[in-house]
Amino acid sequence: MSGANLLIRGGYVLTMDSAGDLPAGDVHLRNGVIQQIGTNLDAPGAEVIDASGKIVVPGLVDTHWHMWNTLLRGMSDGRPTPGGPDRSGYFATCVGVGRHFLPGDTYAGTRLAAAEAIDAGITTVHDWAHNVRGIDWAEAGLRALGESGLRARFSYGYATGHTNDQLMALEDLASIRAAWPSYHADDRIHLGVAWRGTGGSNPAMRVAPGLYRAEIAAARALGLPVSVHACGPAAAAGQVLTYADDGLLGPDVQLVHLNNASAAEIGLAAEAGTPVSVSPWTELQIGYGHPVTGELLAAGLRVGLSVDTTMLSGNADLFAVMKVTQACANGQARHEFALTARDVLRLATIDGARTLGLDAVTGSLAVGKRADVIVVSVDAPNLGVLTDPARLLVTAASPRDVELVVVNGRVLKRDGVVTAVDIAEVTSDARGALAGVLSRAA
Ligand SMILES: [Zn+2]
Question: pLDDT tens, 137-162?
């Protein structure tokens, strides 16, 4: 076992667990595990971190993020040229530029995303890798996640631009699964499958049932969790109904977005125990419509929040994701308290962990869980006072307020500075990689 021996002393502790809040609580971390939570704890030999006047909360949980394309941040704007090739917008850029990625570019993009996650207090990510152009690309993403220190699900996907008449590379998936201990010996990173599904509502993109059923059957035979997008008008066209009819929904299949799913489809997903990932910024930016968090929760679905892609969201500020989630839900319900800050903070912590099957491991502060903790300072002028801590986190805090980040007992950010990776090197590598990708794509 490794990890620091830390006593985080005297903070306003939001456990997000049955213990509730401790207005002046201590959290003791050792050997990568939360050892004790209480007041005036004794922890001989531990380094004491003074958290008085600060907020101590479980690390934030992202539930779906195409980390590779953080390399293309800022590149999804524009309108198609009339009569010309459509190289603008998210999907066209992803396919047009993504096909020129080499494994080193995937590494650089994923590493930049991981560095941003650490800085922003995100301790768990779900890397939805949909530009796996061969096993080397998967290994590049896995290496970046491994080095970052983050807790992660790596969902092995297809290559962007993959044709709809071909299976995804199931042999490579099986070989990674078989050799998994050589990739990640501990349980900090686990494997999943980023599934393209039925291809949505665009007939040109449709995947034949024989192919998509074979893909999900292979994932299930390997015992791997699956994630699939159900978005845009596709959902209205019955994407979720198709999954339900095929017996493809269940606790092992995460659905992403669901903005345009019918009430019947939402009901079917709830009945099957299917978790959902909502990414408000990208859903709004790309025009899927408003997030439907309130409806999903009312139907009893398990919901987590997500970054999705910084090509659309711009950044990986999960505080801002929480804020827009609450604002949209209350605005749509025409009710100030349809979703409280506490409700939203739960989505970004313990409920997000539950959608990834990690709630016994992370997402709340409880003795025996892995030591994934952040400390948020209120010293900056966007905070300045310590009133309702949940409300402050959801409406006022930002990544710069995250002072300490611990994942699996390892300190990744301290005194407001990312220590796990060299940010200057990560960004310099990213710029170099992007220049190479763009010159090959030209
Ligand atoms: Zn997505």
Answer: 999 999 999 999 999 999 999 998 88
